[in-house]
Amino acid sequence: MTNFTLADLDRIIAARAVSDDEKSYTRKLVGKGVAKCAQKLGEEAVEAAIAAVREDREELTAEAADLLYHLLVVLNVSGVNLQDVMAELARRTGQTGLEEKASRPHD
Ligand SMILES: N=c1c2ncn([C@@H]3O[C@H](COP(=O)(O)OP(=O)(O)OP(=O)(O)O)[C@@H](O)[C@H]3O)c2ncn1[C@@H]1O[C@H](COP(=O)(O)O)[C@@H](O)[C@H]1O
C-alpha cells in the first residue's frame, strides 16, 4: 500500500518537463514533441495489453506503471490537466466522486 498518487506523479512530470537537468528522461522525451510522446504511449499500451493476455501479473504491473507515466507525459505536452480528466471520470459516474468516497472512508 502506498499513498503515492497519479497527481503526485503528474506534479513530478510537470517539474521535470521544464527542468534543465540533462539526465531527465521526461525532459528529453518532452523535448522530442507530442508525436514521439504519443508513440511511446502507444507502445506502452500494446506492451500492457500483451502482458494482460499472457496473464503475467508482474509484467502487467510494470507495464501499467510505464503506461500511466507516458499518459501523463502526453497530457502534459498537450496542455490537458489531469484534474480535467478526473472531473470527466467523476462526471461519468453521475456524481462528483466525493459522495462515493465519503461512503468508503477507509479506501
Ligand atoms: N515513472 C517514470 C517512468 N516510467 C517509465 N519511464 C522511462 O520510460 C522509458 C521507457 O522505456 P523504453 O525502453 O521504451 O525507452 P527507451 O528505449 O529508453 O527510450 P526511447 O528512445 O524509445 O524514448 C525508460 O527509459 C524509463 O526510464 C519513466 N521515467 C520516469 N518516471 C518518473 O518520472 C520521474 C522523473 O524522471 P526523470 O525525468 O528521468 O528525472 C521519476 O522519478 C519517475 O517517478
UniProtKB/TrEMBL annotation:
Source domain of life: Bacteria
Keywords: Amino-acid biosynthesis, ATP-binding, Cytoplasm, Histidine biosynthesis, Hydrolase, Nucleotide-binding
Keyword Hydrolase (UniProt): yes
Cell location: Cytoplasm
One cellular component (GO) term of this entry: cytoplasm
Primary localization class, coarse: cytoplasm
Entry keyword annotation includes Amino-acid biosynthesis: yes
EC numbers: 3.6.1.31
Molecular function in Gene Ontology: ATP binding; phosphoribosyl-ATP diphosphatase activity
BP terms from Gene Ontology: L-histidine biosynthetic process
UniProt pathway annotation: Amino-acid biosynthesis; L-histidine biosynthesis; L-histidine from 5-phospho-alpha-D-ribose 1-diphosphate: step 2/9
Catalytic activity: 1-(5-phospho-beta-D-ribosyl)-ATP + H2O = 1-(5-phospho-beta-D-ribosyl)-5'-AMP + diphosphate + H(+)
InterPro entries on file: HisE (IPR008179), PRib-ATP_PPHydrolase-like (IPR021130)
Protein family per UniProt: Belongs to the PRA-PH family.
Record-linked HAMAP family: HisE (MF_01020)
Name of the protein this chain belongs to: Phosphoribosyl-ATP pyrophosphatase
Annotated source species: Roseibium suaedae
Underlying gene: hisE
